[in-house]
Amino acid sequence: MAIFGLWVINKAGGLVYQRNFADGLAQLTSNEYLVLAGTLHGIHAITSRLSPTGSSSGAHVIEAETFKMTILLTPTGTKFVLLTSLAETSANAVLQKVYEAYADGVMKNPFHTPDMPIRSEVFDTKIAALIEPGHT
Amino acid sequence: MSSHPPPSRFSLLSPTNTSARFSLPSAPSITTATTGTPKPLSRPNIYDRPLNKTRTAEVSASAFAFLFSEVVQYMQKRVSGINDLERRLNTLGYRIGTRVLELMVWRTESLSKAPKREIRFLPALMSIHTNVWKAVFGKPADAIEKSVQNEDEYMIIDNDPVVTRNISVPRDMSQLSCSSFTAGIVEAVLDGLGFPARVTAHNTPVNDFPLRNTILIKLEKSVLEREELFK
């Protein structure tokens, strides 16, 4: 049970926040993270059109042998991606709380420009309080 | 169109309705009139609610946070520097403070049997610390301090200020304290009570409270002289 990392992807597919928590996944360069986020954005857009029965919110969980990524798409198009171990069950609950922290610490901050990288101490502290204590 | 159209906004202004609109609580509220919705609002319009009921008069902190965020962004485009921005926030708070004082005087007048007006500085400061803070932020401030070096300086300390709870100031503007808005409120209340002072806000983070803020009150000489006479 571990949470490896959190990404926030804006509605245009840009990575605006990326943070690692536990060791376990190979570290990438910031450029590679950007490419990965953009690719995920594209894949997500396609998966949302695959549904046989009308509209769909797209890929929700992508699983690998050793880890999984859980994706939360907000109504405004921002995506929160949580990288966790396979056994982790709290991913969805954590993502909801991350969304809440984002609404509070980022959207209510007058010094944040929408769709730009997130530099907010309030958000950082909230995320740390949310994810790190139980998973150190 | 039905044969009974919903009342248009003009019908409210017709002479037969004018008196009812201003005197009867059942009169249609202003919001219903302008938007033209046929369904009456479940809660009375803010102008129709009694001023003394504080329990139901709370507003959403989120809504305020978004509004305040926009205010700061709007001002930031129109100022030349941090000092200018703080001065403007102070002015905005001042306009609110005058109203807060007015409202609080009105409320104590109708609620207590012996309403009183603070004429000494320390009780006035205490009442700002508890009553004003409770009326505006829903909780008392955390501490009052007196400056050791300057005897005309007092401080009100808030560990988790509602106004700046969601604001992260970028590093290049680290001196900026958006609590200047709160300072403006305090300045207006002090002014209204007859204690002219210069009030400023300063970030004083400590480990447990990264957002801790100090409101610094620098009293005018005349106030200190008057306090001396009271002794």
Keywords:
heterodimer, A: alpha+beta, Beta-Lactamase, 3 helices, 5 strands, globular, B: 231 residues, Muramoyl-pentapeptide Carboxypeptidase, domain 2, 2 domains, 4-stranded antiparallel sheet, Trafficking protein particle complex subunit (chain A), endoplasmic reticulum (chain A), golgi apparatus (chain A)
Quick recap:
The complex is a heterodimer of chains A (136) and B (231). Chain A is of the alpha+beta class.
As for the number of domains of chain A, it is 1
Structural class of chain B comes to alpha+beta
**CATH architecture assignment name of the largest domain in chain B:** 2-Layer Sandwich
Instruction: Look at the structure and give the mean pLDDT of chain B.
Output: 82
Whole-angstrom Rg of chain B: 22 Å
By DSSP (H or I, 4+ residues per run), the number of helices of chain A equals 3
Level-1 CATH class name of the largest domain in chain B: Alpha Beta
Outline the low-pLDDT stretches of chain B: 5-35
Secondary-structure element string of chain A: EEHEEEHH
Assigned CATH architecture of chain A: 2-Layer Sandwich
Broad shape of chain A: globular
| Chains forming the largest contact | A-B, 14 and 19 residues
Could you give the count of β-strands of chain A? 5
Give the oligomeric state of the chains in this entry, treating copies of one chain as homo and distinct chains as hetero. Answer: heterodimer
The portion of residues forming beta strands of chain A comes to 15-25%
Number of helices of chain B: 8
Sketch the topology of chain B as an H/E string, one letter per element. HHHHHHEEHEEH
Assigned CATH class of chain A: Alpha Beta
Bin the helical content of chain B. 40-55%
Q: Give the overall form of chain B.
A: globular
